[in-house]
Amino acid sequence: MLKGQIPRQVDPRKLALRDAEFEGEITSSELDRITESVLSVDSDVNVKLQFSRDEQGLLTVKGSAKAQVSLECQRCLECMPLLLAANINVAIARNEEDCARLPKYYDSWVVDTDSADLIARIEDELLLALPIVALHEQQCIEFNENEEGRSTSDTEVESKPNPFSVLNKLKSGNKPTEN
């Protein structure tokens, strides 16, 4: 098992034939696309990878990548910390035709040369793990509150008559009164 800094350029086929394992970190300064997609990257990325052959003889890479990031909550627009975690389960293919033959439980990694950018592949997996819409798990505090602590939308709802009150009166057997 190789520990320490994750190398950028690797030959994934040779690593899979050798059953190589990596455990280490990628510094946040090496992740330009992630840095552009979040408010901040608050930790280095912890990576564990196992290169191997599966029972079908396919060359695979399995593992995980985790990093602490901060996103902007789309409900309250406040900073929201998130543990970004990606499970990696890819099969190495030489071209697009090989990708079509892979089992559906693998993602494909097309490597048409002897060298591939491992950090870019890990960054791809982390980008896919980002939520589509960042929201706090708890209900965000209304930011349009008036002096009484009630949101303006609640006040507006109380002041308008219910347009379906006539239907309720008809349903209960009372005739509606005309205004």
What's the average pLDDT? 84
Number of strands: 9
Number of helical segments? Answer: 6
What is the H/E order? EEHEHEEEEHEEHHH
Structure description:
With 179 residues, the protein is an alpha+beta fold. It folds into 2 domains: 2-129, no CATH class; 142-179, no CATH class. Helices cover 25% and strands 32% of the residues. It has 6 helices and 9 strands, in the order E-E-H-E-H-E-E-E-E-H-E-E-H-H-H. The strands form 2 sheets. Strands 1, 3, 4, 5, 6, 7 and 8 form a 7-stranded mixed beta sheet that branches. Strand 7 (79-93), helix 3 and strand 8 (107-110) form a beta-alpha-beta unit. The longest helix has 12 residues, at 118-129.
Keywords summarizing the entry:
2 domains, two-stranded antiparallel sheet, alpha+beta, 7-stranded mixed sheet, 179 residues, single chain
Spell out the blueprint of helices and strands:
Blueprint: E1 2-5, E2 9-10, H1 12-17, E3 21-26, H2 32-37, E4 40-41, E5 45-53, E6 59-72, E7 79-93, H3 96-100, E8 107-110, E9 116-117, H4 118-129, H5 152-159, H6 165-172
Parallel strand pairs: 1-3, 7-8
Antiparallel strand pairs: 2-9, 3-5, 4-6, 5-6, 6-7
